[in-house]
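User: For a benchmark we're assembling, each entry needs the component sequences followed by a predicted structure for the full assembly. Here are entry 17's components. Please fill in the structure.
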Amino acid sequence: MSCGQIILDYGLRAVGIGAQLLPRSEFTLCHQFTLIGSGLIWNVYFAVLALTFGFFAATGLALAKASRTRWLRKPAEWFIFAFRGSPLFIQFFLAYEALVMLPRAGIDIFGLTVATSWLTKAWAGALIVLFLNTAAYSAEIFYGALMAVPKGDIEAADAYGMTGWTRFRRVLWPTMLRLAWPSYTNEAIFLFHATTLVFFSGFPSFQQKGDALYYAKFFADKTFNPFVPYPITAFYFVLLTLALIALFGWVNRRLNRHLPGARPRLRIRPQIIR
Amino acid sequence: MFANCADPKTLEGLNWLLCYLTTGKQLLFYQSFLTVLTLIAITAPIALAFGFGGALAARSHVAPLRWVGKGYTAMVRGVPDIVFFLFVPVALDQGLEWIRHKTLCPEWTAPVRQGADFVVCAAAKLPLSSSPQAVHEFYGFVLAIIAFSVVFGAFAANVLYGAMQAVPQPQLETAEAYGMSRRQVSRRILIPQMWVYALPGLSNLWMILIKATPLLFLLGVADIVYWARELGARKSQIYDFPHPDWRLWYFLVLLVFYLLMTKVSEVVLRRVTTRLTRGQATMAGEAMRKAGA
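Assistant: Structure for entry 17:
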């Protein structure tokens, strides 16, 4: 079989398009590169959506944690502690077991039947867990940055007569993001790497549609040779991590573009601190 | 365990629960918490040693050694750690078996890799197929420890390398001016001073290590996740203690366990930080000096 045919068959296998059966006897380099690459679709899907939703939730949580109102602050603190203090792996298991317990037929709300079965699927359930997890971690980062906003900036905003939403949108938020961005980049890298856990935890893969690591493990188990599929996975992840750093570096330059003098370069030390 | 637990079907209420919580399998579940704590206790020092070696190698003046050190620290960047957890044990296992195969059975000429099989002679198997189950489990646990140590050693190397760079340069130059050799500068000035700079990174690492322990389950070790899934699953009437699907509750117990570990670590680490910053030329140390004065 030519490599082009393999790519046609397995290039989108992870989302269920193409050949139905996974390769059974042939495990060429082309097979492994194609199938593991198609699994990356899931990693990117989880990372992009969780980060997008998580970003806004984290902003809200950080504000709630910084709030003077007890009823806002305490729940935010507990939420952040619970998700930062426990392993993501356990969170996946727990969420899956909890979601499975929902009635299969759906829940009746005022005569409307709300379907629940989709929540136990990885694309929704795991996404919710990843979203909550990154929201908690990012909220802690944003909270730290919010506390580090220079006092002078706020006083200047007050002097201009800015209050409430305007002050937040034009002064607090941009500065907070600027200060938080290097750490937030780290968090994004971490979350991207954490997406590999999805199909190894409670969430089963449906019709062998899995992520990159799922297929890498498939090949490693079939060929009993870990020295090919895992380096391929690593190669893909290094590439995508570099792309992620480039994207976040661009945002970082934008956030800092008004600063006089040398623009602070984004110094990435991934994987150290979360 | 208790005498009145002999016939569980007759028990009710609190008695039933008491008997259920003291069955042999439950005790194994409690023991597996010790497995996890043992793993942390063994891995942490080894990883720190690996990291120390890696950081020193990355600073070395000998180029090949420096490349090894830099390569090791760069290894974990960009690649999910779980890839290493899946890769290292299998790779190590096969590597060891291959070496044993070459030394113990030199008369074999057939290749080790035959298509999708990895074939070594019976004497080279690790552990030997005749050895008891406990040896197999122990071997799996040791492989897990090595995998954890390698990955976390690379993390630690990153942290310690940064900490060594953070020690004020003039201090090292002063030491050199006093005629100390490079080795003496490292031992007397660099290493005693770097810990306070390394502490934030190392505490983070400790938290990450705790939170990485459920991955033991993926390595085939019978850890708390394994037992929670096993015991929590629905037990039909043919079991002594039938119960519905309780996995949610078992995982809630695990969640509480990890939250407690985090909380205790936070408190202890805060104390260590206070102890180490005393008298240091950092902002926190200065603040402490002023508060004391």
